[in-house]
Structures are given as structure tokens and as C-alpha cells.
Design a protein that fits this description.
This protein is an alpha+beta fold. The chain contains 15 helices and 16 strands. The protein is 42% helix and 19% strand. Strands 1, 2, 3, 15 and 16 form a 5-stranded mixed beta sheet that branches. Helix 5 packs across helix 6, helix 7 (179-206) runs antiparallel to helix 11 (329-349) and helix 9 packs across helix 11. The longest helix has 33 residues, at 86-118. It binds magnesium ion and nickel (II) ion (NI). Residues 61, 63-64, 443, 445-446 line the site of nickel (II) ion.
């Protein structure tokens, strides 16, 4: 068998390797994504005070610190067994939405728009954010503006450095909202919302050009999972788990995060250090599910903000039932940016947001706590057990991107089978295989608990395992 390995996959956060194996006739027989670095983070936490967990886990990833702070603090809330004051919860909610807005803008504008604006087959030397700035300066400006707005929301509301905000703590948040910060954010927001709507309109007008990609970029029946609010609305900070199948049928609903183990199993595959979570009632490897923007839009009954609500209705015209092609993660991401901006505005306009009662204080009242939130990339779960001194005895994390591991692997194989031909390996074909992964927007840094960024490559192997080609980009 021939094998192609894409290593490093460029324009994703982290490091992974794609291996494409060809059969005797030169057709793609198998394709896999492997993640090749690992730090035993869950072990490393043992013996640390639970109060350190938010800061510690936030430092595992330079890309998703806010998401870890949220899920970790929520796990600690459960240890304390306190109710978070409403304003504290809403400030956390705003910070989480700031993270979703900035992270989605990073994916769409910096990582994915080069393919969408310049073309999957365009000159690889220019197929990057600099090429976009040159050819589509307005789009680039919109992207930079939305991203830095999201970062400023985090920085100003949570305090501390925007990379590692310190303002979220067990029991609530550290400081009340400054009315000046509120006014500043509300003043800037409409311009960002306008730019986000223009980008979404551009995408909708142009997505017809990518029908071939939409057909094979991880387009297959899977389950979808995420948190929803009490009335079935999209919910990123709180809520309960819902799982639907590819026809839209609800398989599990109103699952309290604390009971996740009845529904989610974690398999470890030999070739990857990335764990593969699966839906337990269906077993492994049958219980493949997807999380993240596409899953959230598929499982939610409604968005709950006016523009995003209309956009969801239009989005659902693509297919009867859930949208199955992972290409539409991009579309869903843009709708979530709009939702995030609308929701931040609504939360800030509530007078209660200036209430100084923002934190509940207590000692641990339980020995076990689970915290779940929707990170930009999907459901992020922290589960801790502590001893009577509040020291961590055991940790399990289920990382947002890790939930998509099985689905990403299927997606890579589907695209490789469609685009890669062993006799003529083009840059455009390999770029499309990578682009499937970019559509999912995994944070591999976080998934492997490895610090910082990692590179990736594609290897092509023949039927006998001999290396035919390597694409290695940093
Ligand atoms: Mg784990
Ligand atoms: Ni991360």
C-alpha cells in the first residue's frame, strides 16, 4: 500500500499528521489523522489544590484558556455546592461569548478564508492571511476587527491578560463590571455586528462554488451533541446535554453534566494520543458524534437572538433534518459570531449586569465535581475528585476538539478518497484534505494537553508501505 502523510497540517491550532495509504491500483485505501504529542496532564494535576485548577488548566492551552477557566470553575462550583450569583454567571457568559467570537473569527478569517476567497487550488505561497489582505482588504479588516473585539471583551470584562484572564474563579467572577467598560463595548458592538453580517452574506452568496467540497468534506451521518438551555435554545455557558441522530431524532436530552459517564465513553486508539470519545449507548466505534458550531446549530430548537434566529431558519434550508456536511461548520461559525455579538449586547443592556454581588464563597462541600461548557470547538468537560483537604485525587478532561476525533478521521478519509489520486498528487488535493480538518477547527494543543503549537505533515505511502511523497508545512 502507498501512503501519503500530511504533516504538519497547516492553519490549524496544534500539530497533527495525516497518513494516506494507497492500494495496489493507486486509489486511496485508508486515511488517518494522528496526533503525535502527549503530556500526562491529568496525572500532573494530582495533589494540587482544587483552587489552582482553573489557572492550571487555562495554561495547558494558549488558544483556549478562557474555555478551560469556565469549565474548570464550574467543576469547582460543584465542589463548593454554591449557587453562582446571577450577575457573576452572566459576566462569565459574556466572557465565554467573547472567546467564541474571537476564536471563530480566527478560524474563519485567518485560517479558512484563504481557501474560500482565493480558492483551494490557488498559489500556496499566497493562500494565507497575507494573500487575503492583499486581494480582499475589506474582508481582512472585518476579520481583524471582530477578532480583536472578542479579545477586548475578554480582557476588559475578565481582567488580566487576554491570553490568560484571571477574572473567573470558583463561585463566580473576581470583580464587578466597570460601567465604563460596559459603555465602551456597547458602543463598538454595532460596527462588529455589521461586519459579521456582511461576511455571512458573502459566504451565503458564494457557498454554491464549493458544492464538490460540501459533498465530501466529512459529509456523512453521525450523531450531534451539545448543551442546550431549558427551552431548547442554544446555550454555551450552562445547560444540559442533548444528543440527536442524523435524522434529527433526540436520543438523549436534559442530561445533567454530572451524569456524562452514562453517555460518553473514551477510547484510546493505538496510532494517536488523542482520545476518541463515543456515544456509549451505541458503543465504539459506532457511536460517532460531532460537537462544535455545526452540532450546536443542529441540536438547538432556537437561537434566542433576533438576527441569529432568522439565520438559523435559513441555514436549515440546506437539508431536511440536521446539516450533515462538515463544510458547513464555516456557515455555522459565522452564525455563532452573530449570535455571540447579539447576546453580549443583550446581557450588557440588562441593568443587573452592574450588580456588585458576583461571587459566592464557600469551602468544598462535595468531593466530586463536573463542569461543562461549550467552548468554540464544542463541549468541554472537566471532572475532578478531591480529598478532604481539597487536593486533587483524580482528573478527567474531555476536550472539545477530542469529541470530534472519530468524525474528523472519517472526514479526512472521505475527502482523500475523493480528491487524492496516487498517480497525480496535486497541492490542491492535499490542501482539501487539510481543509476538512480546518473546517472542524480542532485545537490539538488542547486535545493532547501539549503546550503551545505543533506542526503537521501529510505522508503518502504505497501499497507496500514505501513513502511516495511528503508535504510538510509549518
Ligand atoms: Mg480525559
Ligand atoms: Ni486549546
Amino acid at each position: 500500500m502507498k501512503t501519503i502523510t500530511i504533516n504538519p497540517v497547516t492553519r490549524i491550532e496544534g500539530h497533527a499528521k495525516i497518513t494516506i495509504k494507497l492500494d495496489e491500483s493507486g486509489a486511496v485505501a485508508k486515511a488517518n489523522m494522528h496526533v503525535t504529542q502527549f503530556r500526562g496532564f491529568e496525572k500532573f494535576c494530582q495533589g494540587r489544590p482544587y483552587t489552582e485548577m482553573p489557572g492550571l488548566t487555562a495554561r495547558t492551552c494558549g488558544i483556549c484558556p478562557v474555555s478551560h477557566l469556565i469549565s474548570s470553575s464550574k467543576a469547582a462550583d460543584m465542589l463548593l455546592a454554591v449557587e453562582i450569583p446571577r450577575t457573576g454567571a452572566n459576566l462569565r457568559r459574556i466572557i465565554n461569548l467573547g472567546q467564541i467570537v474571537q476564536s471563530h473569527a480566527l478560524n474563519f478569517f485567518h485560517l479558512s478564508s484563504p481557501d474560500l476567497l482565493l480558492g483551494f487550488d490557488s498559489d500556496p505561497k499566497k493562500r494565507n492571511v497575507f494573500g487575503v489582505m492583499e486581494a480582499f482588504p475589506d474582508m481582512a479588516k472585518a476579520g481583524i476587527g471582530i477578532r480583536s473585539f472578542g479579545q477586548r471583551v475578554i480582557e476588559r470584562v475578565a481582567g488580566g491578560k487576554r491570553i490568560h484572564p484571571i477574572g473567573i474563579v470558583p463561585g463566580g467572577v473576581r470583580k464587578p463590571l466597570d460601567p465604563k467598560v460596559r459603555a465602551e463595548i456597547l458602543e463598538e458592538l454595532p460596527a462588529r455586528l455589521k461586519a459579521a453580517r456582511e461576511t455571512l452574506n458573502w459566504f451565503k452568496k458564494n457557498m454554491g462554488k464549493f458544492q464538490e467540497e460540501a459533498r465530501v468534506f466529512g459529509n456523512y451521518p453521525t450523531l450531534f451533541m451539545g448543551l442546550v438551555g431549558e427551552n431548547g435554545e442554544i446555550e454555551h455557558y450552562d445547560g444540559k446535554l442533548r444528543v440527536i441522530d442524523h435524522t434529527g431524532k433526540i436520543l438523549a436530552d436534559k442530561i445533567s453534566p454530572a451524569n456524562y459517564r452514562d453517555y460518553i465513553g473514551e477510547a484510546v486508539e493505538e496510532e494517536s494520543y488523542l482520545k476518541s470519545p463515543y456515544y456509549k449507548p451505541m458503543g465504539y466505534p459506532g457511536g460517532v458524534y460531532r460537537v462544535g458550531p455545526l452540532a450546536r446549530l443542529n441540536i438547538a430548537d432556537r437561537m434566542g437572538t433576533p438576527i441569529a434566529e432568522e439565520e438559523l431558519a435559513e441555514f436549515r434550508q440546506i437539508e431536511r433534518g440536521p446539516i450533515l456536511s462538515s463544510f458547513y461548520y464555516h456557515y455555522a461559525r459565522l452564525i455563532e459570531i452573530i449570535y455571540g455579538l447579539e447576546k453580549i449586547e443583550a446581557l450588557l443592556k440588562d441593568e443587573e449586569i452592574l450588580n456588585p454581588h458576583i461571587r459566592a464563597k464557600a469551602e468544598p462541600n462535595r468531593f466530586e465535581g463536573v463542569g461543562m461548557s461549550e467552548a468554540p470547538r464544542g463541549t468541554l468537560m472537566h471532572h475532578y475528585k478531591i480529598d478532604k483537604n481539597g487536593l486533587i485525587e483524580w482528573v478527567n478532561l474531555i476536550i472539545a476538539s477530542g469529541n470530534n476525533n472519530l468524525a474528523m478521521n472519517h472526514g479526512v478519509e472521505q475527502a482523500a478518497k475523493h480528491f487524492v489520486d496516487g498517480k497525480n498528487i496535486t497541492d490542491g488535493a492535499l490542501n482539501r484534505v487539510e481543509a476538512v480538518i480546518r473546517a472542524f477547527d480542532p485545537c490539538l494543543s488542547c486535545s493532547t494537553h501539549a503546550l503551545g503549537k505543533m506542526p503537521m505533515r501529510i505522508e503518502l505511502l504505497d501499497a507496500d508501505g514505501a513513502l511516495l511523497d511528503i508535504k510538510e508545512r509549518v
